[in-house]
């Protein structure tokens, strides 16, 4: 069977090109075809690592027509408003940004808001979105996508990322040709944001919790279209061959073997514009602690220029740069396989990770290590980036009453919380494993890659 992986950007590469998925599919006798917009350097790296030659086609991101964009954004705005009311959480509204750089974009957003305010039910949203899909059938991008799919002749089309707008024509083209379609929800915070611009035959989710979220926010999607597979990004943490001894890791990155290591993991500029100030706070509070070394992993999809002054002023910060290739824009950034080993070992050897509400708390909890969330503001922060807003985001409600992470409410608490997390982690976050199991739902019998391959096989078999 021919399974086509549609890879619209670089962020999903580790899950589907670096995991065991391709090898599993190959062993089962499937042909894997890549339809992607990635740099040729990356596909060559993947082929060299796997020792196989991949059939590849170039995917071009093409904007939809203005009317299609209007209907899509109006539906999204209406869904965000309905979801905010349904979940009684006004922070869901922050996922809509009416900001745009161009006059055309500003007018489009205003028009989308005007229509979206007049849509009061999920059924009405479905009607509006279906009008956009109908218009897409007559578009040039739909015709081009059909032509490419007729060359590929896949038995299944799988899009690795659920929120990329320009993929919609490819999905609709596949449907028109009778090709089964699937996608995966990329991250644990994606669903409340209303970024699901296309509809497929099967949705791959991390857990029962995420399945229930999908049914809540998209009631038009039926339960039989959702498969719980976990996420391949967590498979790597269970691969013992990726782990280095503490001495090996220390030698490789120039770390002090005699100290306890804690990691400050950076956020992007939009999420945490004051990240450099937070990094400075942590460094200054730990500077006199002889038994602790502070490691800094910047967010991979941005330059570290905004941290330069802090790194120069605080020599006790050990910079551990991600091993990513940085392209011209966010979607063209991609990780090297070596970054997986780096991240696995950071999560294993650093007993504490400090950040502003990052998913990294889940990554580190795989090994029983503790996430500490910064929960105070610096002056001048915009309201939607304030901790009063951030920690009310819907995905944090997944913790319920559990103590899954620790919180730092002021700069003066940093040292105390770090030392407690190192010495008595269960005092800080006794429920961290419960939270991880709820969000990720790992299966000790089957990796996520195996479960995804099983879904692919069943879908392709059904079509045949």
UniProtKB/TrEMBL annotation:
Its name, as the record gives it, is UDP-glycosyltransferase
Give the originating organism: Algoriphagus aquatilis
